[in-house]
Amino acid sequence: MKIALLLCALCLVPLEGTILFVKRGMSAKINCGVHIRNQNVEWTFGDKRSLIVRLNGKTGASNKGKFPNIHVKRSGEHLEIPNVGVGDLGSYICKVDHTEYSHRLYIIEASVSPSGDVPLGSAASLHCQTSGDPKPQVEWLRPGGGSAPSSGQVQLSSVTLEDAGIWTCRISKDKETLHQETVSLRVQSLRPTVPPSTPRDLSVSRCPHCGTNLQPGQTEGGKVGGSPKDGSPLWGLSLWVWLAAGAGGLVLILLVVLVILVRRRNRRMKRRVHKMRTTRQPLKPNEYCHCNSAVLRPPQGRPRDKTKPVAKQQR
């Protein structure tokens, strides 16, 4: 008997489901927590169990409550809440047959002030706040690691470069992390501003001692300033720029000369070919080659046999 009462009590206690944290104005999707297939489903809201929708798994008939902005899937497996506001916060209970699953919805807001670049040494503050009951634990984690002692708000009186980076707002319950929200703190370092140098007038410079006018780029004593030998740029350009310009000009001149020579050569070849075509005439009959027939004729008569001298006999 006691076991039956215990099981009945467990059936009446809703099982803890998911805890959702969404930003204000965003949409939220809450799953029932179990796969539903041809089963009776009932969604309720708040501690008063206000009816959202009741679905009959066999017939498919539905009975909706006074929550027109909440959309429920046809099977009742999950519901969607668009444009979440303060009135949507609380508990949502999904009852499938005789089993209940309890879910809770919170609104989270994390921000940094000022929102833009914070000058080095100025003040800044970070805010992290949750709306909903019961209140969870809120703490800030620094960019380099470690927690900042706060109850959802961090005040930085003098911002340093170590404070720049990603700050994390961690929501936890019983040392269990439920949600994390991040914000970025950008610190602008102050660099000394160098006044723009006024351009030097090189057109005419005056010698304060001799009272004579100098030529452009010429200093006192008759020396021309800005020569590459003393390391100063000539006319505002470095030595490498002048070398590159000179090499480029030399290559351009060589290319022009080569093009001119090639064009002249082609013209001479065309003239020579044209002259050979215009001056060439057919050969006359008496200008053809006559071979010496005597050389090719075979010898006439029998060739004489050369008798060898008879050697004298010795007596």
Walkthrough of the structure:
The chain is an alpha+beta fold and 315 residues long. The strands form five sheets. Strands 1, 3, 4, 5, 8, 9, 11 and 14 form an eight-stranded mixed β-sheet that branches. Strands 13-12-15-16 form a four-stranded antiparallel β-sheet, with no helix packed on it. It has helices at residues 2-12, 239-279, 293-296, and strands at residues 15-22, 28-31, 41-45, 50-55, 62-64, 71-72, 78-81, 90-96, 99-113, 118-119, 124-131, 137-141, 147-148, 153-156, 165-173, 176-185, 187-188, 205-206, 213-214. Among the domains are: 13-107, Immunoglobulins (Immunoglobulin-like, Sandwich), CATH 2.60.40; 114-188, Immunoglobulins (Immunoglobulin-like, Sandwich). Mean pLDDT is 78; it is low at 1-12 and 220-230.
